[in-house]
Each structure stands twice: as C-alpha cells, then as structure tokens.
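Example complex used in Figure S2.
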Amino acid sequence: MQIARVCGTVVSNQKEPSLMGVKFLLLQLLDAEGKPMPEYEVAADSVGAGLDEWVLVSRGSAARQTSSSEVRPLDALVVGIIDTVSVENYLLYSKRDQDR
Amino acid sequence: MQIARVCGTVVSNQKEPSLMGVKFLLLQLLDAEGKPMPEYEVAADSVGAGLDEWVLVSRGSAARQTSSSEVRPLDALVVGIIDTVSVENYLLYSKRDQDR
Amino acid sequence: MQIARVCGTVVSNQKEPSLMGVKFLLLQLLDAEGKPMPEYEVAADSVGAGLDEWVLVSRGSAARQTSSSEVRPLDALVVGIIDTVSVENYLLYSKRDQDR
Amino acid sequence: MQIARVCGTVVSNQKEPSLMGVKFLLLQLLDAEGKPMPEYEVAADSVGAGLDEWVLVSRGSAARQTSSSEVRPLDALVVGIIDTVSVENYLLYSKRDQDR
Amino acid sequence: MQIARVCGTVVSNQKEPSLMGVKFLLLQLLDAEGKPMPEYEVAADSVGAGLDEWVLVSRGSAARQTSSSEVRPLDALVVGIIDTVSVENYLLYSKRDQDR
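Predicted assembly (500 residues):
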C-alpha cells in the first residue's frame, strides 16, 4: 500500500453502471517522509475518509477484494484512515495532532 | 484510476478475435493539476467518450471487470467521463465549462 | 495498452514447458508521438506481427486472456497490428504508408 | 520480489473490516547494492519481521496468495526475512553480521 | 517479459511456508541493448538458471501460472534461459558465444 493524503474529489455521472454510487477521492501520494510526490491516484473510498486525512491506498486487483467492490472496474481503493506513521521509532504523523 | 484526456484513436484490423468491435481510444494522462504527462494509454471505451473529454481510466485486471470485457486481453478501460475535479475545495475542471 | 514497434526476437529453448512453441517478440515501446522510449517488452505474439510493424501490447494478466495463453506464465502479449494512429484529428501513423 | 528494510510501522484503526488484526510495516526498498531507494511500500507482515531487518516483499495479487490474506485488499506482503544476499559471489548482506 | 542477467542469490529461512524449497535468484534487468538497468528483481527459478546467464523474467500474476507456483506469494519468475536476442536483424546476444 502507499500512504496518501485526500486532496479532492472526482465526479463522473456517465460511467460504468457498476460504479454508480461509488465516491471517487483524489489522493496525493506521499513519500516515506510524508512529503507530496508528483503521483496521484483516483480511488474508491471504503472507509469514509475526508479531506486532508492520511490514508492507505491499495492498488491493482486488491482494490476489488471487498464485499462491495468485487465486480467493479476499480484499480485503487482507500482501505484505511491512518492514525500514526512511525519511522525509525520517530512519530512522523499522528492523526490526533492533525485534528487539533 | 488516473485522469486522462481523450486525444485520439487507434485502429487495428488484424487483432485478437475477442477484440473485434472494441474501440481503442488514445488517452493522454493528466497530472493532479490537469497538465499533460508524458504517459499515455490506449484503452477500450465503455462509456462513449469523445475527443477532448476528461475521463477516468482503470488499468490492469480492473479493465476486464465489466460484462463486455471479461474474456478479452485488455489492460486499460475508460470507466467514466469526468464532470468535475475538485482539488482542495477549488474546481480544477468542469465539463460544463469545457463544453461552452 | 501501449503502442510498440517490433524490433527483434528472443529465442529460449530451456523454458517453462507451457511456453513451448510460443514466439517471443522484442518490442520497442513508442510514446504518443511515435518516438521510441527507453522501455521495451518481450511479448508473446498472437497475431503474426513482423519486424518494424506497429502493434498494441497488453501487459499483466491481460496477456493470458486468450484461448492459447491462459495457463502460461506470460505477462505481455501482442494483441493487434496497428493500422492507424490518429492524434487530435492528425494521422500520426498509417501502416499503408509504411508498407509502400 | 524486491529487497527492503523494515523502517517503521503504520497504524490504522478505521479500516476495511477484513484488515483487522493485520500489522502494517513501512518498508524502505533497497537497490541491488543494498542502498535505500526513494520508493517505499506499506506491507502486511506474514513472518514476524522486526525493525531494521531485510525482507523480501511481494507486490500485487501475490500479496494475497496465503491462507491468511486471500480475501483482503492487500497489494504488498512481507514473505520472508532475508538471511543473505550474494551478488557476483560476493556476500552483500548477512543477517548474522547485522545481528552482532 | 523483461531480459535479465542472473547476478546473485537471496537466501531466506524464515519465510512463508509455501515458499519452502523455492530458490530465489537476484536478477539485474537489462535494457534492449543488453546494458544493465538500475532495476532488479528477486525471482523464483523454474528452469535451473545459473550465474551470468541471460533469462526471461515474468512478473505479476504470471509468476504463478505454473504447476509449481500457483498458490505461492510470488510476483516474479524466471521462465526461460535465453539462447539469442536479435535486434533489427543483428545478433545482440548469443548464449553459445557467452559460454565459450
């Protein structure tokens, strides 16, 4: 999985019927130091992530390994909202600090 | 998924029999600011996208998760025509503005 | 799919038994302007492509979505010989012109 | 597979139900000379790897080819703790030396 | 598939039970001119490749399309030992010349 920050949304009305009702989040991928990378991903959301939150995104066929996304043409899925990222015993990110 | 602009078409007559009747769109991938990237993708079209429209493209096995593309050697599929892209509460792209 | 030019062949005699009889083409990937990229792919051929022809190559599990390649450890397949590539209503490539 | 060093952990409480109880390791990918690359991966751990250990990470659908990870939206898995890496008959890495 | 040179081995004792007995080769990926690329791959070996030999490596789910690797978390497999690579009718590599 990659670490990403929710930075926006994408709306599409004319789409694959199986994608009706799916919310698409625009994710800015972050590097291992938490800095934004040029890469982004438009991913379906399975956990109710909001703007600015850090999330884990799974890509490829992994994006369809849930009860709700199995038969949909999805290649990216937000699978979790991140609480903490620890690097070399140092706390790089904490959602609690962010929310204050 | 990635955001892409439809920039052309590819025609192939001598091809895998299962691909007969499939329309191939040439897609210019766009970055999270809507600028063209060097990357492109030739994708099957499932939604009737036209030249210059912004679309969502799914890659990998996701491209075969539709009733029409399951048993075809496709690795990219246009899954939706984009109406709006919002980044940090700013409207980066709106199809309505584009169509005027 | 990506656009590629057939630029050679790879021969392997000591290989996975399921790959016996499979012809491996060396493909030079092309960018959206038809210029060679550093990337290449060794792909199985399902359509009888010849040297210098432009082809469409599918990668990943898509390479096994044919009657002949389903149970083989292939991750790239030539799925079509390209007749034309049109970009922004301009004819970038035409096999007919190439063959003259 | 890629060679990586365990450099941290990621904690997520609000996540896909199927990922409950899965430990996420932050992996720094290493190049063939053992030097850190900018790339990282957040992977599930199947072997009990600890901080600073070198591991093998499988990505894509491979990450779900175990009894415990089959129906989970995982795209990366630590599949082994590395004992030695030998390059051109030279011992690049030995866990035993590291542990001393 | 990609062309690679066998440049080493990786040994892991503490690993996924399904990988017991699998030999891991360290592969240096080569470009279309036979020059080493920074990319490498740790792959299972299905053909008995030795140090310095040029091989074809399949990645992704292709690595599990053999009788022996189907239920293992592998994402890379050596599928053939290369005898010759011909580029534009020029013989880039020949195993026979290499072995002399």
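The longest helix of chain E spans residues 95-99. Strands of chain E lie at 2-11, 14-15, 24-30, 36-45, 54-59, 76-81, 84-87, 90-94.
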